[in-house]
Amino acid sequence: MERVKLESIPLHAVHIQDSFWDKYIRLVKDVILPYQWDTLNDRVEGAQPSHCIKNFKIAAGEENGEFQGAVFQDTDVAKWLEAVAFTLASSGRDEKLEKLADETIALIGRAQCEDGYLNTYYTIQEPDRRWTNLKEGHELYTAGHMIEAAVAYYQATGKKEFLEIVSRFADVICEKFGPKEGQCHGYPGHPEVELALVKLYRVTKEKKYLDTAKFFIDARGQGGNYFEEEERGEKYKQIFPEFAGYQPEYSQSHLPVREQKTAEGHAVRAVYLYSAMADLAYEYQDKELEKACETLWNNMVQKRMYITGGIGSSGLLERFTTDYDLPNDRNYSESCASIGLAMFGKRMGDMTRDASYADIVEQALYNTVLAGIAMDGKSFFYVNPLEVWPDNCLERTSLEHVKPVRQKWFGVACCPPNIARTLASLGQYVYGKDEEALYIHLYVSNETEVKMKGRLYKVKMDSHYLTDGTVKILAERMNTAEEKTENRIGGKIALRIPGYMKKFRIYRNGEKLENPVIQKGYLLLENLGNREEITLKFEMKARFVRANPKVRADEGRVAVMRGPLVYCLEEADNGSNLSSGYIDTQTEPEEVYEPNLLGGIVSVKLKGKCISMKGWEDGSLYGERKPVFEDTVWKAVPYCNWGNRKTGEMAVWIKELIKN
């Protein structure tokens, strides 16, 4: 029997009004999109120049000059357009914004070559070197982001111009690549186009797009490594000298994907690849490919993921290293990597209906993804460490990739527009549905309409999940002329019970459910009536979390979480030298709602001690003095909000005070 996956509710049908998320979602339309448009046009003072729009004008023959920026610079505007599309879909049509997007799409069309090829770097800089550097040329990666943006824009507006542009380019790709004689048997050095071609197939129904995506996945790691063969070719040019001594693991091409057991290489490339694998596992009902996805997911989240949902522990090459290697002060944890993790987790959750995937999606979205953007929407983190001492974040050292303050922009600016498109599309992560049931993955206040068993329901969720743990859901049957009024219609609602939630109560129409049955993390309410009132009361308390002792960086340390939020200590609240701190975990944390702090948060006060400087007044480096401990009350705030006040130290993992 063919497995049927859950589908997302269209963004235009999910109206989010949430006390936690609204401040971020509003930023996208009001601040982030205008700010990022200015950066793409090099109009933000003090920000690294983008050159992105200028490159398109040069490629279109409308300006003179040379290409500037990274070889994948086109993707900045692609992700910006995708964020625009999601914003138009979720927030309603905006004539001014839509007009700006249409003009940008028209420019992209004018920059497209006559044969359908689209890439400003190769059009301007090296027109005779198309497809000669799949390893690091990023042509297929750039194509993927263009395709994703076009699909989103078509779905939001119904306009076909952008979709036709990328379809012409996709046709070029399908003709160039494949298993047939005369075709190129290579695959992307940076996966992305695979998942994009699946999206294009789903809106156009052109099977060749799906087949080409499958070819890229199936060919990867087969036989001799394509990238090593490519380097020996006459036309190959090494664009990135830092990749000398290339290892196939870096691009997940060391083995056929179905044989890979551990998450390897560049973290963003990995999760984009895995997302496409999950898509294709469903489309082709490929159980072997699905099993490979499960294996890779389990290794990644159980042995190679930070508590914040960050992945990629090495600052060198932005990659995974080995199991349990999770340093806090020099990790990479790129914002894009956590976004890709959420993309992968969503696909796996929709396919398996297992809430453990949504647990990780929630962890990544609420922590690393949100930490990547300032609360004013105008500066960003590319790297997301779990411990920062600003004084040692020095250039030309092993910590030069760590920034103690968010940056206005980056020369390689994949993260800012990626965060924008993710926030604008949050609605796709809240629900999943099939013909009979509505699955609730995230507890975010919203209103939506959904059909269950052919009957239309209006669903309203009022969530105070992050404050007192209460969520109220009202599902009402919307009678239509063609439907008969019935008391019981047989629809279902599946409520995710987070894996970290130890105590909770569920009420259905005022009656408490005793001994509710939970399967794969979901509590299923069946046989819905015309009007259902559901109340969830989760025990939302701060809790202490410890790492596996094999995580050497966290041994003897403890982290604080409250619901999905990871907490941290900041110098702004606790003073400097946070490494001297200890937390008394035998004392109950005290929670305080502070409406005027960081937009309104629940802070957590923790009793503990710190090592005093008494006896070290002479400034000596070493001595035989015994430590002097002082009683201290530490204040922790959500990790996603760190760095929004003054520049200072930050730490997630703090030493645990052990009492005899």
UniProtKB/TrEMBL annotation:
Non-reducing end beta-L-arabinofuranosidase-like GH127 middle domain ranges (all copies): 438-540
Residues passing through the membrane, by range: none
Cited PANTHER family: DUF1680 DOMAIN PROTEIN (AFU_ORTHOLOGUE AFUA_1G08910) (PTHR43465)
Name the UniProt record assigns to this protein: Glycoside hydrolase family 127 protein
Boundaries of every Non-reducing end beta-L-arabinofuranosidase-like GH127 catalytic domain copy: 13-427
Residue ranges of coiled coil: none
Signal sequence range: none
Native source organism of the sequence: Blautia hansenii (Ruminococcus hansenii)
SUPFAM superfamilies referenced in this protein's UniProt entry, alphabetically: Six-hairpin glycosidases
One Pfam family this sequence matches: Glyco_hydro127M
Alphabetized UniProt keyword annotations: Hydrolase
GO molecular function terms noted in the UniProt entry: hydrolase activity
Domain Non-reducing end beta-L-arabinofuranosidase-like GH127 C-terminal: 543-655
